[in-house]
Structures are given as C-alpha cells and as structure tokens.
Amino acid sequence: MSDSLKKYPDYNGKRKPKLLIVDDEELLIDSIKMILGDNFEIVSASNGLEAIEMYEKHKPDVVLMDIMMPRMNGIEATKKILEIDPTAKILAISAYTEKKGKEIIEAGALDILPKPFKRSELRKFIMKYVEYDKKDHQKDQDGKKSNNSKRETP
C-alpha cells in the first residue's frame, strides 16, 4: 500500500483522534476532510469565534487553525483556546506565514504549515503531533508519568 493511501494508527484501536479544522475557505476544509477523513474524526469552523465554540464542545486532539479569517482571526482564537485549555495542540496553516507566522507562534501555536501545501506535507505535519500524543497516551496506559507540556514540540 502506498504511503499516500496508508491509514495512520489510532490510539491502539480506540477512537480516532479528533481534528478541528478552522478556515474561512469551505473548499479547503472539504479538501482536508478528504485527505484526513479516514484517520480522524473531523469537525470544522469558519472563523475564530466558531473555533472557540467548537473547541469547547468537541475537545479535539488537534486544531488546524488558519490565521486570516473574518469575525476573529486565528491569532486571537489561539489565545482564547489556550486560556480555556493550556494543553490544546494548535497548528497553524496560512498563506501569510511571512507576515503573521511569528505572531501565531507567539500566541501559542506549536507549528505552522504554509499554504499551499501538498497532501503528503499536510499528513506529515499533522501526524507528527498525533504520534507525539499517542506516545503520551501509551505512557499513561503503562502507568508511567506522562509529560503533557504541549508547548514543547516533539
């Protein structure tokens, strides 16, 4: 099976990881759902205010956050989500990485992926953080203390 079609592991046969996609471009959300839908339970929001509501309602494992959006941008939404849950894993995606990339990282995003991106780049980008979470999950299962400092990159 080719890497592009391979399904990634899911928490030792338990539920699929939950992904919140936040972007004001419906077409991009649909494309990401097609790319990652077999591996994730996916919910979405079209702006920062909706992102906060969806985060509180669904408690996703990972948030994929655009920066430039109407009503509330991704930088402000990232700050608000981290106030609610300091362990939230927020990953930025943006066409404005040179202008706004530093701001969203300073706001608390763990990493940023520039738009446009290839399918394989998106999978690697997201799975880096899901794999990290899986290791923490396994340590918890084994009775060892888990390091849940989410502001550190893997």
Give a verbal description of the structure.
With 154 residues, the chain is α/β, with parallel strands linked by helices. It contains five helices and five strands; from the N terminus they run E-H-E-H-E-H-E-H-E-H. The chain has a five-stranded parallel β-sheet with strand order 2-1-3-4-5, sandwiched between helices. Strand 3 (62-66), helix 3 and strand 4 form a beta-alpha-beta unit. Helix 2 (48-58) packs parallel to helix 3 (74-84). It is globular. The chain starts with 17 loop residues before the first strand and ends in a 13-residue tail after the last helix.
Mean pLDDT: 81
User: What is the spatial order of strands in the main beta sheet?
Assistant: 2-1-3-4-5
What is the strand content? 15-25%
Note the main sheet. 5 strands, parallel
Q: Order of helices and strands, N to C?
A: EHEHEHEHEH
Structurally, how many domains make up the residues?
A: 1
Overall 3D form: globular
Keywords:
154 residues; five-stranded parallel sheet; alpha/beta; disordered N terminus; Rossmann fold; 5 helices
Task: Produce a short descriptive summary.
This protein is of the alpha/beta class and 154 residues long.
Write the layout of secondary structure elements.
Layout: E1 18-22, H1 26-36, E2 41-45, H2 48-58, E3 62-66, H3 74-84, E4 90-94, H4 97-107, E5 111-114, H5 119-141
Helix pairs in contact: 2-3
